[in-house]
Write a structure and sequence with these properties.
By secondary structure, the protein is of the alpha+beta class. It contains four helices and five strands, in the order βααβββαβα. It has a five-stranded mixed sheet with strand order 1-2-3-4-5, sandwiched between helices.
């Protein structure tokens, strides 16, 4: 797609960025009602905090003066602790692409901006979290060269039926 402009996010971008964040929140809410609440996913005060605090790097992607993507990242520092080494990395807190603009190079442009920023900040890597159900996002990140670093599993107790078990009495 031609004419994708990536620029720093500003306070006047709130309404358009909010719409993008709502799209992703609806996806998460539909897939994980057990975790996500149906609340405002980006209150104005939180948006202002991202713009105000220096550790956050906030960018938007525009096409024809319409914001169609956003990325919010920050630098994380992990101190040496026990078996773990000290390290510094760029963490993508949030990335959203308008559902009508996916697969048009917008996410790639935003991630390229994150890569440039990571090099400038001299960090060891870029990291992010993605839900296992979000296959489109996983495929996208892998196309960009991201690799799976770790996996987190759950065993959902609430949805498991114990009616067939005889449990011991706990004293």
């Amino acid at each position: 797609m031609k004419d994708i402009i990536v620029r720093k996010m500003c306070i006047n971008d709130f309404n358009q960025v909010h719409k993008l964040v709502e799209q992703v929140h609806k996806l998460h809410l539909n897939e994980r009602k057990d975790i996500y609440r149906n609340v405002d996913p980006l209150p104005f005060d939180e948006f202002k905090k991202y713009l105000r605090e220096h550790q956050y790097f906030c960018f938007v992607a525009e096409v024809n003066d319409v914001i169609v993507g956003e990325i919010i990242s920050d630098i994380k520092e992990v101190k040496e602790d026990g078996i773990f080494k000290q390290r510094r990395f760029l963490f993508i807190e949030d990335i959203c692409i308008d559902k009508n603009y996916t697969r048009k190079g917008i996410g790639r442009k935003l991630c390229d901006m994150a890569k440039q920023l990571a090099r400038k900040e001299n960090v060891s890597s870029i990291e992010l979290n993605v839900w296992a159900f979000n296959k489109n996002a996983i495929n996208f990140y892998e196309e960009l060269g991201f690799t799976c670093k770790s996996m987190r599993y759950e065993y959902n107790i609430i949805s498991v039926s114990y009616t067939h078990l005889t449990l011991p009495t706990i004293r």
